[in-house]
Amino acid sequence: MTGEPLLYALLSLMIVGWTGNYIAGKIALQSFPPVLLYGLRISMAAVLMIPVYVWDRRRHRPTWTLRDLPLMVIIGVFGVSLNQFLFVLGLSRTSVAHSSIFGNMSPILVLLLAGARGLEKLTPRKIAGVAVSLAGVVLLRALDSHPQGKSSLLGDVLTFCGALAFAIFTVIGKPTAKQYGSISVNAVAYVGGALLLAPVTLWQAARFHMATVPLSAWTSVFYMALGPSVICYLIYYYALGRMEASQLAAINYLLPVLATLMGVWILGEQVSLWAIVAATVIFSGIYMVERAR
To answer: Model-level pTM?
Structure first.
């Protein structure tokens, strides 16, 4: 399989892989506390990223030195590690539907940050799109809260902050990632994040009964490290070099729908009509912003 069939097959794998991240996270959180889960995930991802980095370094001449390492660690940890840490914390306190909605608001946040820095002009159509999305967020929180614990304001805020961290990385750190190479920055981010969190991970692991964890939870952690963190990421940048970024951005509209459906099917979560209406409003606003660019 070559050419477009291969590209679309890989994109399908990427969409399924990222969608499954929400389900795997929920399954793993049934056995692991959030901080330990994140520590295990980033540690596994770091180990898996090392051979990818070695492979990439053999194909391309290194563009960074040890003097660049602190900056790469700061940018990478902020854009990758913090984003994923807040994702896990948020997912432990909210539903798959809410997590997938708030976690995919990066286009709106990127626009606002880029506009604040003077990197992008805030036209009336873009501002209208932002207003529509924010109205959808208010609608979602006001009319689709679940006191039984399926979703919470704290969980939604944490997930939103994760999307904000990635948006900040996109606006501020993307030029640096382009200069040093995306694989290099992410490898440094995973390894650096794992090392920085190692004392906490080891402390949590020492107080936790690992022998009681079922195979399904361990499989979910490994899936979160290998699939979304490594394989899907590599597919994304492979696709980015072969199609327009705006086309690839359409994934933002697919993920919440697929994640919600999988949450209902696999986890038995309930989705209200108000959640569907609010999500439609939010992503209509994002669509308006993308069309105005």
So the answer is: 0.85
For residues 29, 31, 33 and 38, what is the CA-based torsion angle, rounded to 10 degrees?
-60
Q: Return d(Cα 193, Cα 290) in angstroms, integer.
A: 32
Nearest to 268 by CA among 87, 100, 26, 101: 26
pLDDT tens track, the chain, 293 positions: 556 778 888 888 988 998 999 999 999 999 999 999 999 999 999 999 999 888 888 877 767 777 777 777 777 777 778 888 999 999 999 989 889 888 888 888 888 888 888 877 888 888 888 888 888 888 887 766 654 446 788 889 999 999 898 888 777 766 666 677 778 878 888 888 888 889 999 999 998 999 899 999 999 999 999 998 888 878 877 776 676 655 666 676 778 888 888 888 888 888 878 888 888 888 888 888 877 76
One-letter amino acid at 47 equals: V
| CA dist list (Å): 184 to 72, 195, 231 | 9, 16, 15
Query: What is d(CA 53, CA 183) in angstroms, rounded to the nearest whole number?
Result: 6
Tell me the C-alpha distance between 48 and 26, whole Å: 22
